[in-house]
Write a structure and sequence with these properties.
By secondary structure, the protein is mainly alpha-helical. Helix content is 58%, strand content 0%. The chain folds into two domains: 32 residues; 129 residues, Cytochrome Bc1 Complex, Chain D, domain 2. The longest helix is centred in the first third of the chain and has 30 residues.
Amino acid sequence: MPPRHIRSMIAGCILGLSICVLIAAVAFGLLLSGVGFRTGANQPHSKLFAWAVHRTMLNSVRRHARADAPRLKPDRSTLLDGMRLYERRCIACHGGPGIARAQWASAMLPTPPYLVGASARWSHAELYTLVHDGVKMTGMPAWGEISSPEEIAKIVALVEAMPKMTPDQFEALRREAAARSP
């Protein structure tokens, strides 16, 4: 039989672990019951929750970024095609150079980011993954479910070109894309 102090230490560890499990179970129960978490989009998340979810999203995108993400040359044709897709699927939430988000997008939690500087924050593979896979709990759809890899690559090419565009250039591209739409 082990000495008394070892038995006492083992009992203390078991008691401490049991208390931690009980606290975690109560916290999880409160979360599931709705007491510990409010799903309404009219109040922001707590700073701790927002930080944890954002950090998880950043790490997940970086870990799962598609190394084989197609990259298209950002020529006029690619940018026009990308603009047509961006206009239909993205601009209301993300705006563009000189273009604000739709007013209702500001009521989303988290608020969708402007994408003008996205290529400075994300690699090509990460941008492609974000557009292709979407982001859970944000309202960002997984466009890869209904779009071809080439269509997603065209949107990414446009997003990567946006930092170099003035508001006037962006608007001119929008008008040209609209005029050439089928």
